[in-house]
C-alpha cells in the first residue's frame, strides 16, 4: 500500500468467517517519488493478547538520512492498520500475505516414514578409553 497526505491509513483485514490462518509480513517501508525531506512516521495499529487496540511506530523515514527501512518480514496478525502518523509521504509499504488452510496444516502419515521408524538400529557400543 501507499500512505500519503490524502490517504493517511490503510487497513488489511480478512473475512472473519474464514477459518484459515492468515499471516501478513511487512518487508520494506520506503519513501517514494515526491517525498519531502521531513520525518515520516509509520505506525501499525493492531490488537494485543487482551484484544486491546495498540499502536506501535515501526518506521521513521527521512529522505536525506533514511529513505528506506527493511523490516525483515515483520509478521502481523490481521486485521491490522498502517497509518502515517507524521509527515506527508508518499510512503510505500511492501510485504506478503500467506494463507494456511486448516487441512493443509494437518498431514497424513507416509508409509515410507513408518517403515523407517520400524527399522532396527544396531546397538550403541561404548567408547574406547
Explain this structure to me?
It is a single chain. The radius of gyration is 23 Å and the shape is elongated. The protein is mainly β and about 130 residues long. Strand 4 and strand 5 (about 55-60) form a beta hairpin. The protein has 2 helices and 8 strands, in the order E-E-E-E-E-E-E-E-H-H. It has a single domain (about 1-100), classed as Jelly Rolls (Sandwich), CATH 2.60.120. The strands form 2 sheets. Strands 1-8-3-6 form a 4-stranded antiparallel beta sheet. One of its GO terms (cellular component) is nucleoplasm.
Structural key phrases:
129 residues, mainly beta, Jelly Rolls, 4-stranded antiparallel sheet, 2 helices, 9% helix
CATH homologous superfamily placement: Nucleoplasmin core domain
Query: What is the CATH architecture term?
Result: Sandwich
Order of helices and strands: EEEEEEEEHH
Biggest sheet overview: 4 strands, antiparallel
Topology at a glance:
Layout: E1 2-3, E2 9-12, E3 21-31, E4 40-47, E5 53-61, E6 68-76, E7 80-86, E8 91-100, H1 102-105, H2 111-118
Provide a quick synopsis of the model.
By secondary structure, the chain is mainly beta.
